[in-house]
Amino acid sequence: MVQAKALVKRFGEFEAVRGIDVEVRRGEAFGFLGPNGAGKSSTMRMIASVSPRSDGELKVLGMDPSVDGPRIRARLGVVPQQDNLDNELTVRQNLQVYSRYFGLSRAAARRKATELLEFAQLSDRADDEVEPLSGGMKRRLTIARSLVNDPELLLLDEPTTGLDPQARHLLWDKLFRLKSRGVTLIITTHYMDEAEQLCDRLVVMDGGRIVAEGSPAELIDRYSTREVLELRFPPGEAAPDVADLAERVEVLPDRVLLYTGSGETALECAHARGVRPLSSLVRRSTLEDVFLRLTGRELTE
């Protein structure tokens, strides 16, 4: 569905995307993870055929965006990071008007709107104005609008940012349903649990480059350990020397993280040498552990 080789995007002297290779397979959910400024959005805009590449090769749906941009865009669905619904129209009208941009007749646009309202669980709000809708409803409407042309490839930029847990899980369910219908998904997200839930494969970007690629499980296995032991100590107390109890130890201002195959064993060893934390927690390694190891904990803008 998407094939990029040595893909580059420059803005003047600044190189936002620095020669990446990406392949997205039909029917999968593919993720781009990375801190702010990593190059995710620039890559997504090139795939969406709205921003020309500066160098390298890019094929989307087997076509070159620099030549076949309109044909590619006709077969894409795009969910932007910020909802850009028309507040002067009703929920139903937002879908019907957008359908007309893709050449649907008025009758077909009405049918498609009814179908998508049911999919998004918005049928009971069909004739309401957009402005009073909750954030979750607006997000579902934005996703529904992106489906009016029955896209083969759906691009979602931070699809659940700012939503409460219930709304996030409902959106996850809708995206699972789309994937089961054969729609290919490309997702950028800052939520590591979302990436683990939704993505079959993903890449981690940092500084315009891909620093890791694989399934969530493969990345955790490659860059982290099976478990993590978290030890919390009183503020201002020096962290004890426990470096020999784990494969890797990370000292943070409020806790010490021990990356190990067995958190319980590491905790027993710490207790045996007199280490007495305020609290301890043994948990499985997550994609967030991988992400922070690869991209660091420093804030980037």
UniProtKB/TrEMBL annotation:
Gene Ontology, cellular component aspect: plasma membrane
Predominant cellular place of this UniProt entry's protein: membrane
Keywords assigned by UniProt, alphabetized: Antibiotic resistance, ATP-binding, Cell membrane, Membrane, Nucleotide-binding, Translocase, Transport
The protein, known as: ABC transporter
Molecular function as annotated in GO: ATP binding; ATP hydrolysis activity
Superkingdom of origin: Bacteria
Domain ABC transporter: 2-232
SUPFAM superfamilies in the record: P-loop containing nucleoside triphosphate hydrolases (SSF52540)
UniProt entry tagged with the keyword ATP-binding: yes
Protein's membrane topology: Peripheral membrane protein
Family: Belongs to the ABC transporter superfamily.
